[in-house]
Each structure stands twice: as C-alpha cells, then as structure tokens.
C-alpha cells in the first residue's frame, strides 16, 4: 500500500504543496542562518550539509524521475560527505571540494527546474516559485564557485582595497549583485579566474532573464492565437 493511501488528510495536503516553494523557503531560511553564523566556518559547513539534503529531496519531488534522482544522488553524496568532513576537520582542501560539489549540485538543480518549467504550455503556481528558486540556485552555485576560486587561486577577490578571503555571505552578496546585474559593489575580482567566473555569471543572469521573458511572451502569443483561432 502506498504512503499516500494511508496518509491523513493533513499529510496528503502537505504532499500536494509546491516543492519549488519549499526549496525557495529553505534557501531564504539558510540565508538568514548563514548571516547569523557568518564567520563561524563549522556552523556554515553543517548548514551546507543540511541544504544538500533539502536539494536532493526537492529534485526527487519535482522531477519524478529515477534517472534524474540517480544523477542528483551521485552529485549529492560526495558533497554531503565532504561538507560533513569539513565541519569536523576544517581545512581548505575539504572546503574547496565540498564547495565544488555543492556548486555542481545547485547548478544541476537549477537546470532540472528549468526543464520542469519548460515542460508544458501552462504556468502553474509551482512553476512561478520555480522561477525564483532557479535564480537563487544559480546565485548559490556561483557563490560556492567563488569560494573554490579564492582557495585555489589566492588573492582572487578584493574587498575595497584589501585582499582577503571572502566569507560565504560576502561570496553570496557578490553573486546576487552580479547575477542581477546590479553591480559589483565594494567586492572586485583580483585574478583572471575570478574575472572569468564573474563574466560567466553575468552571461548566465542575462540569459536566464531573457529565457523567462521569451517564455512568457511565447505563452501569451499562444493564448492569443487560440482565442482568435
């Protein structure tokens, strides 16, 4: 007997809620927790491990595909293990590789949500949440890449006139301002690799906005043609 058939009405209602909304809410909650524990690397590592579990569950709910679930698990398992190891041992080697796998998992989830949003000609409430969740996934992914870059290439970022490693919140701040084309503010790239990441994120941000706008225009045109057809 399936779990849904034995679930209470309250549980069934929970199962039918929008998974993209859960993902977006989890990311916003993680943002608050990251800010609260900024500067405490062990706390950040534990929170990152929790976020990996959230992403794996969301991918499974959204995609409803064993193939996609398998790929997500292959990416998430080393990310989770490395992040937990970093929470215990706290060294740059573990941080760089856990951040790299985390970035891949976030980008994969964003790609999965884009496929999900493009899968039909209707805009559901869950897809509206997915639009926002995809943006935050991309921002988180590049923030993790910035963490990798500054470990592998020291001096990759400048905060004002000071060359120092960015905290994760600073990396996320740089990522969001860059992805939204709001500007780099007081944090600047200090190496060629950092500049390449900045360029790629700017390109991804513009492409994502263009894709969303093009989809909305296409759907509006399709509805207009059906109405007059």
Could you name the key traits of this structure?
9 helices, mainly alpha, 229 residues
Summarize the structure.
The chain is mostly helical and 229 residues long. It is built from nine helices and three strands; from the N terminus they run H-H-H-H-H-H-H-E-E-H-E-H. It has a three-stranded antiparallel beta sheet.
Based on CA atoms alone, the radius of gyration comes out at: 19 Å
How many alpha or pi helices?
A: 9
Mean pLDDT: 78
Alpha-carbon distance between the two ends: 46 Å
The percentage of residues in β strands lies in: under 5%
Largest sheet: 3 strands, antiparallel
Description of the molecule:
Helix 3 packs parallel to helix 7 and helix 4 runs antiparallel to helix 5. The protein is built from 9 helices and 3 strands. Helix content is 78%, strand content 3%. A hairpin with a 2-residue loop joins strand 1 and strand 2. The N terminus is likely disordered. With 229 residues, it is mainly α. The termini are far apart. Strands 2-1-3 form a 3-stranded antiparallel sheet. It has one domain. It is globular, with a radius of gyration of 19 Å.
Tell me the layout of helices and strands:
Layout: H1 3-6, H2 9-15, H3 19-36, H4 41-63, H5 66-89, H6 92-117, H7 125-152, E1 157-159, E2 162-163, H8 168-179, E3 187-189, H9 192-227
Antiparallel strand pairs: 1-2, 1-3
Helix pairs in contact: 3-4, 3-7, 4-5, 4-6, 5-6, 6-7, 7-8, 7-9
